[in-house]
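Hi C.,

You asked whether I'd gotten around to modeling the 64-residue construct. I have! Everything is below, sequence then structure, no commentary in between.
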Amino acid sequence: MKRKYLNVIILCIFLFLNIIFTQYMVHQYYFENYITSIIFCGLNILLFPLALLIYKRDKKRQGV
């Protein structure tokens, strides 16, 4: 029933990056840098499926 610590650390890093990208996106939107805001929005959207893929792979290896 133990999770692999490497997968947990990677998921924590992805969560941290999502928080940073969201803050930066809102900051850039506030100062009307719309292109940069869209870039960080896209990075946020790309990170979510990667985190979901790692979570499902960890769950599958665990046998749950």
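If it helps when you're writing up: The radius of gyration is 15 Å.

Thanks,
B.
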